[in-house]
Design a protein that fits this description.
Blueprint lengths: L12 H14 L12 H8 L3 H13 L3 E4 L3 E4 L4 E5 L5 H7 L4 E12 L2 H6 L7 E11 L2 E11 H4 L2 H8 L2 H6 L6 E11 L3 H7 L7 E10 L4 E10 L3 E5 L1
Parallel strand pairs: 3-10
Antiparallel strand pairs: 1-2, 4-5, 5-6, 6-9, 7-8, 8-9
Helix pairs in contact: 1-3, 2-3
């Protein structure tokens, strides 16, 4: 290994490679985009096989220092995103205010029966149809949130398709005559990530997520949107004003 001076000489080879990469990261040796060398490049540089390089990168993912983009390599986790929670919490606005580029990817749109917390939050009967939207929120193409959103289907039938087209809940609601809406309740808790969270947040299964349960109401104080959003715990700070 050509960076053996950065690593301890004992322990498994992949751990020594992980330590060498960690030293490189601390010394700022990677480019401004924060992209690490590929497994192949690391294997050649350190004269190891690709499996060893893969294990070393996985170790940095477990530490919360690196995240992997599907088919796009390994990147340093950027500075924490300050996410403001208030009466008008809007994802795009929050991300843009931090000088980052917001985007969303819709994973699923459909209808599901409302049960438990969802039915109670939206003042719906148990089993009543609700519009369901599963989406991933990103900042500079880095996933920071996975959201499950529910709306009463009786009032907002078809809104899922409008949201998938505009990627804006505000614009989608406007088509149903909702000109303004505010946050009524926000609950935050920490939990272990689900398999869905690990997949879409591209994070380690041992890294907690911050789960935000929220209810939005219209101008008439009627509940219209229920969200459960899981944020990558090592990429987001919550700010309450």
């Amino acid at each position: 290994m050509d960076s053996a001076d950065h690593a301890r000489s004992d322990g498994p080879l992949w751990k020594r490679l992980e330590a060498a990469l960690l030293a490189d990261i601390r010394e700022g040796r990677f480019n401004d985009a924060g992209r690490l060398p590929s497994e192949h490049e690391l294997a050649e540089r350190f004269s190891v096989n690709r499996h060893t390089a893969r294990q070393a990168l996985a170790g940095l993912v477990q530490r919360g220092i690196v995240f992997k983009r599907k088919g796009g390599g390994s990147y340093l986790v950027p500075e924490m995103l300050d996410y403001e929670i208030g009466t008008r919490t809007r994802f795009n606005t929050n991300v843009a205010q931090q000088g980052r580029e917001p985007s969303r990817t819709v994973i699923e749109v459909g209808e599901r029966p409302a049960h438990g917390a969802v039915a109670a939050a939206l003042a719906m009967a148990e089993g009543e149809p609700a519009v369901f939207i599963l989406a991933v929120g990103k900042a500079d193409d880095i996933p920071v949130s996975v959201s499950e959103t529910y709306l009463p289907a009786a009032r907002f039938a078809g809104i899922g398709a409008l949201y998938a087209e505009s990627l804006s809940m505000t614009k989608a609601l406007l088509a149903y005559g909702v000109t303004d809406y505010t946050r009524d309740v926000t609950r935050v808790s920490a939990r272990n990530p689900s398999q869905t969270d690990v997949l879409y947040l591209m994070q380690a299964s041992t890294t907690p997520v911050l789960a935000v349960e929220s209810i939005d109401i219209d101008a008439g104080k009627r509940p219209i949107v229920y969200h459960e959003t899981r944020f990558a715990g090592e990429r987001v700070h919550f700010v309450v004003r």
